[in-house]
Structures are given as C-alpha cells and as structure tokens.
Amino acid sequence: MLSAKNLFQEILDDDESFRLFCSIAASGESQGGWENGRIAALVPASQRALAPKIARHGADEDKHGRIFDALLRKRGLTAVPVPHETDYTMLLEKRGFGLAHEQLGREEPLTERDIITYLAHSRVTEQRASEQMRLLRRYFADHPDVGRAVKMISNDEDNHLAYCHEELLRFAAAGHGRTIQHLLRECALAEIRVYRDVSLAVMDHMGRVLGWSRAKAAVLAAGIHAAHAYERLFGWRRMVSLTPPERRDALGGPAVAASEFA
C-alpha cells in the first residue's frame, strides 16, 4: 500500500535515500539559521526588541541542521551535495520570496517593512515546516533512531509558527494590516509553486536511488500535482490567516540545546 508512512519508512530504511533526505534538510535549516542571524543583526532601532527572538529563531534552525548531520553520523554516513532543483530556500529566494541574501550580506540596517516581509515569509514557510514535522511526529515519534529528533524539531517549528502569528498581529494592530495580507498572499502562492517543484525533484531523486518503478513514480508525481492543484485553489488560505496563538511569547527564552544529538 502506498502511503505517506510507508514512503517515509522506505526512505528511512535505505542508507542512500536517508543520506539524501538528511542532507537536503540540513542544508535548508542551516540556510535558515544564517538568514535569521543576519536579520537579527540588522534589525532597525524601532524593532530592537525583536532581535533576541529572531536570533533564537536562527539558533533553532542551526540546531536542526546539526541534528540532521548528527543523524547521518550515527549511521556512519556523510552529507552529499544538495541537488540544485531540491534547494527549497534558494529557489524561494530566486522567486523574490522574503529578503535577498545579497541584502542580508550588507551592513545596512533593515527597515520596518523588511521586518514585516521577513515575518510574512516565515509565517508561510513555518506553516509548511510545522505540518511536515507533525506528519513525521505522528508516524515516527517512537522510532529508536529519529524519534527524539522529530519531536524536538516539531516542537520548535510550532514555536516558530506561533511567534510569526503573534508578531504579525502586533504589526497589524499598528496599522500594517493591508500590507501584511498582501505579502502573505503573495508569499503563499509563490511557496506552493516552489514546494511542488521541489517535491517533484526530491521524489525523482529518491525514485532513482530506491529503484522505483515508472508506475510508482507516476502515482507519486500525480499526487504531488493534485496536492498543488488543491493548494492553488483553496489550501493557500491556511497560510495567510492570522490568529492569536496558544503559545504566547514562544521565542522569548533561550534555545533548547541538542547535546544528545552531538
């Protein structure tokens, strides 16, 4: 039976597919860590109170990258180069999503609009990350090798999503509501296209590693296209709503260490 659980289990059980999966995940998390670190350093004076939370966000992303690297080491594996077409973060940037690396590489302070753009970008991508990790947590929370990692990362992603809701609502209350809704819709529509393309690319690479039949590959590709069609018509709306989170001040403290994965 072809199911999400069976698919993930197949990837987890094979060294080469697991190696590719962790390499892609570690690369994306590390990029996110760098981005948040730079944004924290460049926050405008009017929003300096946000800097520790943005830095905490970046520290969490860096930690996730280290966790995926540690999972590889535990199996005696090393990371592989990430195929260009599977680089979610880079492909989002190429579509003008969020703040460009070129801008973050300079020493010029960001504007308040830049911070709102960053939060809108994060609200959309953290929705995706939270959903993906909850799916993995549902199936593999008790797995002896990846269970602790999945639970820790899932909790962090839920915190990141709560933080984005809370801060965007604060900006909306300050009169930026229309700008936020415009940015959220723009980001959501861009993200679902990139997510579709990256999903197809990842499944293509996994299929070659695992020797999937043409029929199996075609079924998975059809599922990805169907999911994108739903998101394009209706699903994107879940990425643009803003509600007060149950977790308040979710990034208000220090990052939780990941020493057990070192």
Q: How does this model look, in words?
A:
It contains eight helices and no strands. It is mostly helical and 262 residues long. The mean pLDDT is 94. It is globular. α1 packs across α2, α2 (15-42) crosses α7 (147-210) and α7 packs across α8 (214-233). 71% of the residues lie in helices and 0% in strands.
Summarize the structure.
The chain is an all-alpha fold. It is built from eight helices and no strands.
Q: Could you list some keywords that capture this structure?
A:
single chain
Question: What summary fits the major beta sheet?
Answer: none
Order of helices and strands: HHHHHHHH
User: How many β-strand runs?
Assistant: 0
Global morphology: globular
| Radius of gyration, taken over Cα atoms and rounded to an integer in Å | 18 Å
> In percent, how helical is the residue content?
over 70%
Quickly give the structural class: mainly alpha
Which whole number gives the mean pLDDT? 94
Low-confidence stretches: none
Oligomer: single chain
Number of helices: 8
> Percent of residues in beta strands?
under 5%
Between the first and last Cα atoms, what is the distance in angstroms?
36 Å
Topology:
Layout: H1 4-13, H2 15-42, H3 51-74, H4 88-94, H5 101-104, H6 112-140, H7 147-210, H8 214-233
